[in-house]
């Protein structure tokens, strides 16, 4: 999610095989350099392999160019890397976020064969993407400061991945389940990145 000369990137912490939970502290967000991050939803082994290949490519770029890669350049690299494997793809949906020239935020996501989707406000991916779209759409405001951006992205993430939310409907005072997503959750992991610092925070969510 984009703010005023800053961005935030967040994920849940659950690693599971369908309905079975394997771990509750899984890392999905990876730092490429201080102003560029990538989050990889999908198959855990493919996410780790893809991250290693991207770090390797970025280090080669640093050695040759003697500078860090711009977010737009990195997005093209990720897209090309995924498209190379289009007949046997990595089962990952990347979310890329970074600060480019003049500390202008850049965000994009892509599918597992590298088709880019650019946005100026927010991007989402993963099993809870449908509820994330609704939460982000209702909570996002342009030009948020870092602290407000952190609050907004945290609330959007937690409200999207919490299971069994109930809402009062109709004159009969009955409660109906609204969002049911048992494939994500167990808290959150948030990075808020400004031109001068990177803040990392862990969120506590429902642990069931």
From TrEMBL:
Q: Which GO terms describe its biological process?
A: proteasome-mediated ubiquitin-dependent protein catabolic process
Q: Which UniProt keywords apply?
A: Cytoplasm, Nucleus, Proteasome
Q: Record's Gene3D superfamilies?
A: Glutamine Phosphoribosylpyrophosphate, subunit 1, domain 1
Q: Name one Pfam family in it.
A: Proteasome
Q: Does this UniProt record's set of keywords contain Transcription regulation?
A: no
Query: Which residues does UniProt assign to the signal peptide?
Result: none
Q: Which PANTHER family match?
A: METALLOPROTEASE TLDD, PROTEASOME SUBUNIT BETA TYPE-3
Q: What does this protein do?
A: Non-catalytic component of the proteasome, a multicatalytic proteinase complex which is characterized by its ability to cleave peptides with Arg, Phe, Tyr, Leu, and Glu adjacent to the leaving group at neutral or slightly basic pH. The proteasome has an ATP-dependent proteolytic activity.
Protein name in UniProt? Proteasome subunit beta type-3-A isoform 1
């Amino acid at each position: 999610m984009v703010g005023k000369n800053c961005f935030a990137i967040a994920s849940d912490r659950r690693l599971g095989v369908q309905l079975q939970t394997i771990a509750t502290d899984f890392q999905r967000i990876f730092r490429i350099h201080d102003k560029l991050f990538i989050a990889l939803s999908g198959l855990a082994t493919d996410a780790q392999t893809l991250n290693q290949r991207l770090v390797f490519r970025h280090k080669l770029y640093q050695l040759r160019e003697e500078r860090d890669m711009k977010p737009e350049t990195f997005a093209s690299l990720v897209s090309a890397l995924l498209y190379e494997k289009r007949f046997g793809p990595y089962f990952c949906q990347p979310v890329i976020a970074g600060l480019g020239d003049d500390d202008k935020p850049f965000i994009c996501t892509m599918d597992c064969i590298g088709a880019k989707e650019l946005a100026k406000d927010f991007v989402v991916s993963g099993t809870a993407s449908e509820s994330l779209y609704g939460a982000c759409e209702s909570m996002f405001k342009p030009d948020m400061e870092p602290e407000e951006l952190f609050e907004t992205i945290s609330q959007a993430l937690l409200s999207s991945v919490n299971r069994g939310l109930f809402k009062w409907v109709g004159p009969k005072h009955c409660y109906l389940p609204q969002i049911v997503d048992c494939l994500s959750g167990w808290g959150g992991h948030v990075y808020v990145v400004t031109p001068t610092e990177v803040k990392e925070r862990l969120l506590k969510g429902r642990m069931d």
